[in-house]
Design brief:
Pfam families: Alpha-L-AF_C, ASD1_dom. GO terms for molecular function: alpha-L-arabinofuranosidase activity. Keywords: Carbohydrate metabolism, Glycosidase, Hydrolase. By secondary structure, the protein is an alpha/beta fold. It is built from eleven helices and 24 strands. A nine-stranded mixed β-sheet has the order 21-24-19-18-15-1-20-23-22, with helices on one face. It has an eight-stranded parallel β-barrel with strand order 2-3-6-7-8-9-10-12, surrounded by six helices. Strands 4-5-11 form a three-stranded mixed β-sheet, with no helix packed on it. The two termini are 27 Å apart. Bound molecules: alpha-L-arabinofuranose.
Length: 497
């Protein structure tokens, strides 16, 4: 099979906001306790953070991490997590039915983020709380001093403000599983008024209005239309969440499910632009895809969990080769929408549906999905170029006209680098992809990284890394045409300099 890709360096979709390579740490399962934080671990630093985890996260170059939830957010009192640790309460955490010890909170997490080179995307509880708790938290985090909450932070040992720029107004407030679930009207009003007060404390912050919990929600996309009617003036982004799973064990159909993602993104953009027109606004609402990943492997196991444990293993999906391919496809989709998607968070980062896994008291390792995420984050900086692709197509159970290949091209003018991300999602056939490189004379292929495995169900573990990239991808130049062989079911990164 053959696919052709036309590139034009003048046809720029947008500068890529590096925050599309963000991630997420929620207080649940072993994400915080036993994940990033394990003071008794022999490799813990002076604050109790695991140095091996800091190293694995740093290699991903995660620009922003959403915190502290997630579903847990909707009954969280941020005050429980600041001040002397021995005074912090142990509480029933209702969303995941565990005990929250509060040994990590806002200040410690800001420190952790600094250690891995990330910004914090802070979320405020709009389930059980509202305007007051949210504006106090902004004052605590961002006000320099001379006020009650900012001075309290200083007495807690943080003289300088954290200067957190990005704030989420609640989490999945349409979900029946959410503590304090709201109707669109209720949420829209509360979010608008909360956001107003927060920006009054610190006008430099940016706000994310809560979108639907997923495109499958019965209220989607009416939720977006109603809530944004209230929050359009105060918010800068609307959130999108979507999780995927190969529940029917139909891998071809599963790998085509970025088609659905594409449709979801288009719909949210349409609703935003409808509101822009309705309000005669000059502002274009941007998208924050602040929860996305594969999540299904652990569902059954999680049903059996005894409640009220401290940091039990929850949502510990073990990812395989096909999951890594889908993750690559999702990242390509985001890059092709770089003009509207300005933030995105792989949910999550450590242990809980995560690219990084730790053993309590032991080592840590990389899941299959670590690799496409790292490749995109490290090499996908610059501008996203418009590509015109002619690719053969196939049909699956749920999707028609699925292109065999999916591709995004990033040009980093400063570094004089072009990176091609290419996915062949067909399970049987290789594709020869031809890229017209006439706009990039003198550029040569530096490396062609490939992630592939004969067994789509191959996974990694502490003992064995079965799925990892190799550097032996095949390519050749025919004058200005770059020919790249993209093997069946493979993720490819072609780096030119
Ligand atoms: O990431 C796991 C959960 O998925 C989050 O807590 C919630 O926001 C979503 O439903």
């Amino acid at each position: 099979k053959q696919a052709n890709v036309l590139l034009d360096k003048g046809a720029v979709i947008s500068e890529i906001d590096k925050r599309i390579y963000g991630s997420f740490i929620e207080h649940m399962g072993r994400a915080v306790y036993g994940g990033i934080y394990e003071p008794d671990h022999e490799g813990a630093d002076e604050q109790g953070f695991r140095k091996d985890v800091i190293s694995l996260v740093s290699q991903l170059q995660v620009p922003i991490i959403r915190y502290p939830g997630g579903n847990m957010l909707s009954a969280y009192n941020w005050e429980d997590g600041v001040g002397p640790k021995h005074e912090r309460p142990r509480k029933l955490e209702l969303a995941w039915r565990v005990i929250e010890t509060n040994q990590v909170g806002t200040n410690e997490f800001a420190d952790f983020a600094g250690k891995v080179g990330s910004e914090v995307m802070m979320a405020v509880n709009l389930g059980t709380r509202g305007i007051d708790a949210a504006r106090n938290l902004v004052e605590y985090c961002n006000h320099p001093g001379g006020s009650y909450w900012s001075d309290l932070r200083r007495t807690h040992g943080y003289e300088r403000p954290h200067q957190i720029k990005t704030w989420c107004l609640g989490n999945e407030m349409d979900g029946h599983w959410q503590i304090g679930q709201k109707t669109a009207e209720e949420y829209g009003r509360l979010a608008a008024e909360t956001g107003k007060a927060m920006k009054q404390v610190d006008p430099s912050i940016e706000l994310v209005s809560c979108g639907s919990s997923g495109s499958g929600m019965p209220t989607f996309p009416e939720w977006e239309a109603v809530t944004l009617d209230h929050t359009y003036g105060i918010a800068d982004y609307v959130s999108l969440h979507q999780y995927f799973g190969n529940r029917d064990n139909d891998s071809q159909n599963y790998l085509a499910s970025t088609m659905e993602l594409e449709h979801f993104i288009h719909t949210v953009i349409s609703v935003c632009d409808y509101l822009k027109a309705k309000k005669r606004s000059k502002k274009t609402m941007m998208l924050s895809f602040d929860e996305w990943n594969v999540w299904y492997h652990s569902n059954e196991q999680d049903q059996k969990l005894e409640p009220w444990q401290t940091a039990p293993p929850q949502l510990e999906d073990r990812y395989n080769m096909e999951d890594a391919l889908l993750v690559g496809g999702i990242l390509i989709t985001f890059l092709r929408h770089a003009d509207r998607i300005k933030m995105a968070c792989l949910a999550q980062l450590v242990n809980v549906i995560a690219p990084i896994v730790t053993e309590n008291g032991g080592g840590s390792w990389k899941q299959t999905i670590y690799y496409p995420y790292m490749h995109a984050s490290v090499f996908g900086r610059g501008v996203s170029l418009q590509v015109i692709v002619s690719s053969p197509k196939f049909d699956t159970k749920d999707f028609t006209d699925v292109p065999y290949t999916d591709t995004a091209v990033v040009w980093n003018e400063g570094k004089e680098e072009v990176t091609i991300f290419a996915l062949n999602r067909h399970l049987e056939e290789d594709v020869l992809m031809t890229f017209s490189m006439k706009d990039f004379p003198g550029y040569e292929v530096n490396e062609h990284l490939v992630l592939e495995h004969d067994d789509l169900k191959a996974a990694n573990s502490m003992r064995e890394e079965r799925v990892k990239p190799h550097n032996n991808g095949q390519w050749s130049f025919q004058r200005t045409e770059l020919e790249v062989k993209v093997n069946k079911a493979s993720w490819n990164v072609i780096r030119l300099k």
